Amino acid sequence: MVTLTSYLILSAAMFIIGATGVLVRRNAIIVFMSIELMLNSVNLTLVAFSAFLGDSTGQALVFFVMTVAAAEAAVGLAIVIALFRRKQTVNLDEINILKW
Amino acid sequence: MIENFILTLTIFLPLAAGIVVLLLPSGNTRLIRMAGVAGSLVTFIVSLALYVLFDPARAGYQLVQHADWIPSLNISYLVGIDGLSLLLILLTTFLTPLALIGTWNSITVRLKEYTVMVLLLEVGMIGVFASLDLVLFYVFWEAMLIPMYFIIGIWGGQDRVYAAVKFFLFTLSGSLLMLVAILSLGYFASIVPNGHFTTNLVELYQVGASLPVNVQLWLFAAFALSFAIKVPVFPLHTWLPDAHVQAPTAGSVILAGVLLKMGTYGFIRFCLPLFPNAAIQSAPFFSVLAVIGIVYGALVAMVQTDIKKLVAYSSVSHLGFVVLGIFSLTEEGMQGAIIQMVNHGLSTGALFLLVGMIYDRTHTREIKAYGGVARLMPVYAAFLLIISLSSIGLPGLNGFVGEFLVLLGAFRSVTLQSPAYAAVAGLGVIFSAVYLLWMYQRVMLGPVREGGLYGGHKLTDLTKREIATLIPIVIFVAWIGVYPRTFLSQSALVSKRTVEYLQGVQRSAPAPLTMRAADGSMQELRSR
Amino acid sequence: MIAYTPLLVLFPLAGFLFLGLAGPRLRNEKLIGIIGSGMVGLSFALALGILMQMLGSAPEERKAVVELFPWISSFTGTMGSFSVSVAYQIDQLSILMTLIVTGVGFLIHVYSIGYMHGDRGFWRFFSYLNLFIFAMLNLVLADNFLLMFLGWEGVGLCSYLLIGFWYEKKFTGDAAKKAFVVNRIGDFGFILAMLLIFVTFGSLRFDTVFAAASILSPGRTVMVWITLLLFLGATGKSAQIPLYVWLPDAMAGPTPVSALIHAATMVTAGVYMIARCSLLYALAPVSLEVVASVGAATAVFAATIGLVQNDIKKVLAYSTISQLGYMFLAMGVAAFGAGIFHLMTHAFFKALLFLGSGAVIHAMHEEQDIQKMGGLKKHLPVTYWTFVVGAVAIAGIPPFAGFFSKDEILWKAFSSDFGSWVLWLLGALGAVMTAFYMGRLVFLTFEGKERFGHDLHPHEAPKTMTVPLMILAVLSAVGGFLGVPKSLLGSNAIEHWLEPIFDPANHKLLITEHDIVWSEYVLMAVSVAIAAGGIYVAWVMYLKRTGMADRLAARFSRIHRVLLNKYYVDEIYDASVVNPIVTISDEYLWKGVDTTIIDGSINGSARGIGAIGSALRRIQTGVAQSYAVVFVGGIVLVVGWLLLQSH
């Protein structure tokens, strides 16, 4: 039987993979995808708890998250494209003007 | 009834005038100047109504207006005056139009903004003197910083930005601690039985006095630091010379004339009655600083090469007398301190006006660049002499009345217990003559410079406008010197009550719970 | 009449205000002169009227106080709080001083019409003079210490204004400032004395203070403090050691000013003040000794400097300091009446001498060096004869005024319970030098050969100047008869008149009237011999054997140089007081404490915060991922800590 724990473990694994991706990858697109992965891991948790507790609020929240993620994807990719146009690169190490 | 809103009207009239000025076309400089002067003059005339309506024989605060502001915390718009506030508000409304008229042509860039800033400054200053709610007081206190910051920073001299930032940071660092103390007081008010959070000054008078002495000392220190910076008390005075030297003339006049008094006013209005035990304990400490300030300010003023700096250091010396008078905790000292505040406002304000007038002609403040001016500007020489003598403390002019009462108060003070304070402060009498007369000699006397040129400019005597600015000041200088009763009787009751209260505290070591002066107005407030 | 006392003060005040405000527009010297002199004349007439009334009433009814309005007070109405009114007191002493001030003042005003003729600041001069009379009358008529102090500082201000009257010259400004500042040192003492008096007696009114003092017994420390501090004030105003240094410099002012302020009236204010407070001094015999010693020392010290000065006004200035020393000597040996008597005669003959010197300077076209004069007798006959009268009066030749007053002082210095033969000897030494330098002054200026250029044609001064000279000469000649001592079969009218004022003090000091003794006649004879001897020596040295003075100067060149340079006192003060204060203020206080320590620490802490900031900003790499690492690390730490807590 698939218990709540299995969902949570999967979710945690996805979150860690996503977080690691955000921290270690240099390509902005991949970092971006990793963030999506983290968001989805949270979604999975929400759905799992929702089913476990029989409360549908969690599932409603998931829709919110997906909507925000979609909007975020649009804005985020636009930023990445704008950055690429300006710097001819999506390597995050070279995008370091956010200082001093 | 006019009594109910006259005070609010006085506070916010300059604001209304400022808004009107904002709407004027910026090209029409004459109109802007007229509007600024008219606005401040109307304020002065309205403030005269305060004088008429105020009854010096009645204890407590008068012309009180109360309106809820943050009801959940019992913070309210609460204004009212007693004799001390009255004198200082009148000084403010009197000096502001004179500062504007006296510097009619001095400001050429961003005139509109400048006029608005001066008017806003006036709002803040009157508000400070009229507030009876600590948060309201704090708001006015900080609000007044902003226009002054810009006045120094935009229309100032060469190092204006340094001076403006220094001024701002000095004042702010003190006042933030004061905010903490205000909130703590409100909190202490809420933890007594049946208490509630409040920043109503009249209610807090009882709270403060009932606090343990060590708590009082901390809160007192927080308030006192803020006020001491403003006064300024040695060794927190170094922002003053920079601010004065860099500020435009009107800024210096108001800074010296009124802003510095906010510190000494704060001592009398807040520090002493709120924390009587702490005030008594720290009186010798502040008196020592005051005496050092008197002598130190005078000595340093003596060796200045810049006229404005000289006058600025003389302020340190004169304000030392005020602080000494306050902390002598005697009626004479208190009355002397209060009249000395007014005196300093008039004399030093006028000195800055006079320096500004000659600076407008020569564009130099170096004493070295002058000499023999009296021959070319005899009317100016006469005014400068009268005002210098008033500042020196010549009997018959205003300065002497304050200085003598302060010295007497310090001399016979039970709290200070030593005539040494007055004796050393008396040295200031000698040195003030030295630095002012030396300055006067180097600037005014001696042979006219070759070609009659000063800083490359020819000198012309004062215009009718400039004379008209100075005459009202000279009239008051003589009036206070000859018949100070007009002014001293206004503040007599405040001084008497405050001193009696503190002496009562001193005699009976455990703090009594009520202050009689506060009591009367409390009942009045509750009955509303 | 007495009720009109405030008018005494108000006339000159009105003159000052009118001339000060309208003066520049008047443009009519005659009108200005008449208004200026007239106001003082009115005061003098009124004072005479009051005197007449006083003479007609019993001695105990000769005192009155007219109160005008409350002046300085705390106005709190608390018992024992400070309060002082503007109130004037008429009594035997103040009316005498008023008469001297207004009388001599009036003559000098009239004289000034001629002397200041054609000066740009004519109106200014008269308005200042009127202001001076106003302040001086406040000083002598005040019924309390504070109002007296108003006059005290007021005359100091006028002195400042008038010394610096010709302000375009550099040294007048220096002299004026020096006068004011040195006086302020004395005033510092006066203020402290007032504070002590108020704390001790609870009032500053003379009546109240003296009433309270009259029941005290001598020897209280506080009385010593009060009297010594008051005396500090007196040394400033009346140019005594150690604060006399301003007076010689004050000669930079116009000569009528030297006559009025720096000889006849203002400088005697200190003497008047001690006379007024005689009761307080009687309670502090130590202070009396100090006063006597300082007075005697000053009398001799200033006279030695006066021996060699070549500036006609400087000689008179040192002579004034010396004569003031005699007055203080009198005060110090509790011969208050004699001191006031000498004050009065000195006002006559010193004003006369100064005005005479003014006429000489006028005639010599602003030349003041007596070495460049000589033989002026035939050019300036009126000036010469009046000057001679003044000179013999000050030298102490009977029956001129100075003889009686000075002899009285010397006798008291010897015979009084507080006197001694040392004090007498000092006084006599001063007297012989006085006679000598006055003789020298007269002989070098008026007698002998003309030592000035032939293009110079000295001429006698106009009537407005010579008439006051003649009046003063008459007063100098006969003024002494007001105080002929009993030993010379006189009645000593002036001391008798002043008795009610000094009785309390004399009573305290247990002073009783001495019988006439033979030693008084001996000393009197010695005085006369001394005076005549001094003049004779001067005559020999400067007229008979003209080279002798130079030979003596060469022989004792070191002493001569020291005297010529006034014992280098100014230089010593500069080096020991003035320069150190300026240096300390400049180098240590301003540039050290203010700029380096206070501003340094504040700017330093600002820079320190800046430095910390620029170190910390290295953390901001700009790479968003490194921020994220820290962020995640933080979360791990927090979560880990929470987990540990829960177990």
- Categorize the overall geometry of chain A: elongated
Structural class of the helix and strand makeup of chain B? mainly alpha
* Biggest sheet overview of chain A: none
Question: Can you give the mean pLDDT of chain B?
Answer: 89
**Could you tell me the strand content of chain A as a percent range?**
under 5%
Return the CATH topology of chain A.
Helix Hairpins
The helix count of chain A comes to 3
Instruction: Please write the string of helix (H) and strand (E) elements of chain A.
Output: HHH
Largest interface (CB < 8 Å): B-C, 59 and 56 residues
Major sheet of chain B, described briefly?
2 strands, antiparallel
Number of E-state strands of chain B = 4
Q: CATH architecture of chain A, please?
A: Orthogonal Bundle
Number of strands of chain A: 0
Radius of gyration of chain A: 17 Å
Rounded to the nearest angstrom, the distance between the terminal CA atoms of chain B is 14 Å
Structure description:
- The complex is a heterotrimer of chains A (100), B (528) and C (647).
- Chain A has 100 residues and is mainly α.
- Chain A has a single domain, classed as Helix Hairpins (Orthogonal Bundle), CATH 1.10.287.3510.
- Chain A has helices at residues 4-24, 28-53, 57-87.
- In chain A, helix 1 runs antiparallel to helix 2 and helix 2 (28-53) runs antiparallel to helix 3.
- Chain A is elongated, with a radius of gyration of 17 Å.
- Chain B is mainly α.
- Chain B has helices at residues 2-23, 29-53, 83-102, 111-130, 134-143, 145-155, 160-191, 201-210, 213-230, 239-246, 249-274, 276-302, 307-327, 331-362, 373-376, 378-392, 398-411, 420-444, 464-482, 485-507, 516-526, and strands spanning 62-70, 75-81, 453-454, 457-458.
- Chain C is 72% helix and 3% strand.
- Chain C is built from 25 helices and 2 strands.
- Chain C has helices spanning 5-26, 29-55, 92-115, 122-141, 145-163, 170-201, 206-213, 221-237, 246-249, 255-264, 269-276, 278-282, 285-306, 312-332, 336-363, 381-395, 401-415, 421-446, 463-478, 493-508, 518-544, 548-555, 557-564, 569-616, 624-646; strands at residues 64-73, 83-90.
- Chains in contact: A-C, B-C.
- At the A-C interface, helix 1 of A face helix 25 of C.
